[in-house]
Design brief:
- It is a single chain.
- This protein is of the alpha+beta class and about 230 residues long.
- About 50% of the residues lie in helices and about 15% in strands.
- Strands 1, 2, 3, 4 and 5 form a 5-stranded antiparallel sheet that branches.
Length: about 230
């Protein structure tokens, strides 16, 4: 009985391997550039990494076909090379003799491309599915629209200029007012000096109603006394 089971498994594996070959219509070639991507931190690609790749692809197919129980066995790999390149095909869970259409495989990979890349610390350039164009990253959307930032800068500049203009005008008015006050004070001081009474020769002082000394009146008064 055990021999029969082993024979059937070997036969199934052999038939599945025959489905995977280079340039098959529903298959894809994969190229990895570990050294380019990771440099000194590169890791060795071995059977454990290959198992992870197949498990990741099985998850990708499950995520694309909701309700289909894809397993690692449904991801068939062939033509593996030491420089880390290989071909793979995907079989249906309920019929391992039939391949999933290549177009559906491509859609599934594009849908989960970031998850695949992150599993191996690679990018679209260093983990290449030949024949599947790289996914385009979503354009960065800043939290604040650029036009709003520009509008804020312009309004801030205008507001600052207006404030500076108001302060400058107020300072000029205050300076002019102070100068006018000083001029008035100097004029008043000059008037007081002009209006000071002058002593006559006899020591008396005479002023007319306007506050100016009447010299003629002083002379007449001196003649009268004589």
């Amino acid at each position: 009985m055990s021999r029969k089971v082993i024979f059937l498994l070997s036969l199934a594996l052999s038939s599945a391997q025959q489905l995977c070959k280079p340039d098959v219509s529903n298959g894809y070639k994969v190229r990895l550039s570990l050294q380019t991507a990771l440099g000194d931190n590169t890791y060795v690609w071995d059977q454990n990494e290959m198992f992870l790749f197949r498990a990741t692809l099985a998850y990708t197919m499950r995520n694309h076909f909701d309700g289909q129980g894809f397993q690692v066995a449904n991801i068939i790999v062939c033509e593996e090379t030491p420089r880390v390149s290989f071909w793979f095909v995907v079989t249906w869970p309920n019929d391992t003799t039939h391949l999933v259409d290549g177009g559906e495989v491509e859609l599934a990979i594009r849908k989960s491309r970031n998850r695949i890349n992150n599993a191996f610390l690679l990018s679209d350039r260093t983990l290449e599915f030949v024949g599947i164009s790289p996914t385009l990253a979503v354009p960065y959307q800043p939290p604040t629209p650029p036009w709003l930032i520009a509008f804020g800068v312009v309004m801030g500049t205008v507001g600052a200029g207006f404030v500076i203009l108001v302060i400058s005008s107020a300072m000029q008015k205050r300076r002019k007012k102070k100068e006018n006050v000083e001029d008035v004070t100097e004029d008043e001081d000059g008037d007081v000096e002009t209006q000071s009474p002058k002593s006559l020769k006899n020591g008396s002082v005479r002023q007319d109603p306007t506050g100016v000394s009447n010299v003629a009146f002083s002379d007449d008064e001196r003649v009268t006394q004589m």
